Amino acid sequence: MLVPAFRSYYASRVRKYVEVGIQFGLLDTEQSVYRNPEEYRLSMWNEPELDRAARCACMWGPAIGRYVVEKGVFTEDQISVTGCPRFDYYAEPLAKVYGEKVGPSLPGSPPYILFNTNFTIGNYSDNTLDRMVENMSRNYGYPREQILEWHRVQQEAIASMLDLARKLATDFPAITIVIRPHPQEKEEPYLEGAAGFPNILVRKEGSVTPWVQRALAVVQRSCSTAIEAVMAGVPALSPSWIPTTHEYPLPEAMSVSLPSYEAFREAVRAIVAGRFQPAKEIATRIEGLTAEWLHASDGQAHERVADAVFGSLGPLDTVDVKACRRLLYGLHNESAWTLRGFANRVRHALHFPHRWSFRGLRTVAEVPRDPHFGAPQVEKLLRAIESVQNGHGSPALAVRDANDGGGYLTPKFHGRSIVMEAP
């Protein structure tokens, strides 16, 4: 099991992995997008026994890899410097997968500038403001006043981003402005801000990769999509007058920083005319930063991750399936003398689905949460990868929903996992 971050809210789940014998490792989602290595280390859980239990830890680049070893988080044997696999779609041959074969596009394929926002504290979609503040305070230890101030600043930033989009839409009527909110942001503020401007569109669907690859430019403030834009050969622009609560050095250093709307407008004018050239020092800076923080932009990170995982695996027959089933039914944390605990034990003993409702005499369906994808989307992506001839010569994989064919501990469990296997 590869965990996307070693943060406090994952710790209880990972302890269950250890308890039942499931091997796990770290494949971080935003590892190098921090202000410094210490900030990254402090974002991790304070669970040394879980750190030691990890079979592998895939590092985006040597800078973070060296630091976590120096601080005793991991040993050198656990660390593999791999790069980030999702960036492989910006290098050949995988660049064609999203660039040509998969992903959303706009009707008529108009030229567009992509605005990527990451104002989740000011515009959180998954919870109320009070609940978000409570969760952040509990998980990260931030004081309530600090979180509320971040909320205020990010709301100001949203208003400023919308003002920038409207000005560009007015000054460049032949160009479409695509605003792509962060997956954990609400769309409503952007839809309201775009009202009355036919060349401003708000789009949230699909992977960000095709949106980046097909854009004239990517506009962001301290967002990892600046890194992706650079890897795709697309200018990354940072409107530095727009406030941000967390200014991250790596994406900002890879962006062209523009201090005013007038400077921004001239940069866009040059991009549209095909004469935009970033300063030479930016290219030199990007090369050095890539080596230290991202390892390489060679399209091979996924292979290095696979090598790290397979090279770190222990015996594969150590999983206690009975214990896994008990965890599924919640028997590890519910007393048998509570109503819930008794009901769980009855479901377990009678092999009822773990979400079986005795009151309704049916299985209560779990509502899928975004981002969610199913077997058809995975198969489409897999066939596109196969079509670009990635050099392995391996047989075509079959794709199925894990609910089909006994992919779970109990056939009555309805999950959302996808199975890929050689036919």
What report would you give on this structure?
With 423 residues, the protein is α/β, with parallel strands linked by helices. The chain has 17 helices and 14 strands. It has helices at 8-20, 37-42, 48-53, 62-70, 95-101, 129-140, 144-171, 188-194, 208-213, 225-231, 249-253, 261-273, 280-294, 301-312, 321-328, 339-350, 375-387, and strands at residues 2-3, 25-27, 57-59, 79-81, 112-116, 176-180, 200-202, 217-219, 236-239, 256-258, 356-357, 362-363, 398-401, 418-421. The strands form four sheets. It has a six-stranded parallel beta sheet with strand order 7-6-5-8-9-10. The longest helix is centred in the middle third of the chain and has 28 residues, at 144-171. The chain is globular and about 70 Å long.
Task: Kindly list the characteristics that best describe this protein.
six-stranded parallel β-sheet; alpha/beta; 11% strand; single chain; 423 residues
